[in-house]
């Protein structure tokens, strides 16, 4: 009986997991372990207009990062367009990170993306990047998404 309950608990944990399959798009100064997007139980991630999407990235660094900048883009028809009004461009503030990030450390970056109700209903690839003090890519990932009503 106890084994059955443990098995059901493990299945439930996997069923509610929002870890997504991502494509690394140029991580240089770091390496991504996991990307978690909530809510995103299936891919492409459905980004409902007027809602907030939470993103958590677990990553390690290859060199010390003293300053970090965040960029969030929608790739549409081969064009990389910034999500307007992203309120957290400083990767060292309001993200769970406290710079400097030591070389070889493992960190969790957390942020939120508001899906504006004015965005078009369209399939996109979300491109999320963190760059260091030299403009080098600490990490970069792409996740398929669809903006929905």
From TrEMBL:
<feature type="domain" description="MD-2-related lipid-recognition">
    <location>
        <begin position="22"/>
        <end position="145"/>
    </location>
</feature>
<dbReference type="InterPro" id="IPR039670">
    <property type="entry name" value="NPC2-like"/>
</dbReference>
<dbReference type="InterPro" id="IPR014756">
    <property type="entry name" value="Ig_E-set"/>
</dbReference>
<dbReference type="GO" id="GO:0005576">
    <property type="term" value="C:extracellular region"/>
</dbReference>
<keyword id="KW-0732">Signal</keyword>
<dbReference type="GO" id="GO:0032367">
    <property type="term" value="P:intracellular cholesterol transport"/>
</dbReference>
<dbReference type="InterPro" id="IPR033916">
    <property type="entry name" value="ML_Npc2-like"/>
</dbReference>
<comment type="similarity">
    <text>Belongs to the NPC2 family.</text>
</comment>
<keyword id="KW-0964">Secreted</keyword>
<keyword id="KW-1015">Disulfide bond</keyword>
<feature type="signal peptide">
    <location>
        <begin position="1"/>
        <end position="17"/>
    </location>
</feature>
<dbReference type="InterPro" id="IPR003172">
    <property type="entry name" value="ML_dom"/>
</dbReference>
<dbReference type="GO" id="GO:0032934">
    <property type="term" value="F:sterol binding"/>
</dbReference>
<dbReference type="Pfam" id="PF02221">
    <property type="entry name" value="E1_DerP2_DerF2"/>
</dbReference>
<protein>
    <recommendedName>
        <fullName>NPC intracellular cholesterol transporter 2</fullName>
    </recommendedName>
</protein>
């Amino acid at each position: 009986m106890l084994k059955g309950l443990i098995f059901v608990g493990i299945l439930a944990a996997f069923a509610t997991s929002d870890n997504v399959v991502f494509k690394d798009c140029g991580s240089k100064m770091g390496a991504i372990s996991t990307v978690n997007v909530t809510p995103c139980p299936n891919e492409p991630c459905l980004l409902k207009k007027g809602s907030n999407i939470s993103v958590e990235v677990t990553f390690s660094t290859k060199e010390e990062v003293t300053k970090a900048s965040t960029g969030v883009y929608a790739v549409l028809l081969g064009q990389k367009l910034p999500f307007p009004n992203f309120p957290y461009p400083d990767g060292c503030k309001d993200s769970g990170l406290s710079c400097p990030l030591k070389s070889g450390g493992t960190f969790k970056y957390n942020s939120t993306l508001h899906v504006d109700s004015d965005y078009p209903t369209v399939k996109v690839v979300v491109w999320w990047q963190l760059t260091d003090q030299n403009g080098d890519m600490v990490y970069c990932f792409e996740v398929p998404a669809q903006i929905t009503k």
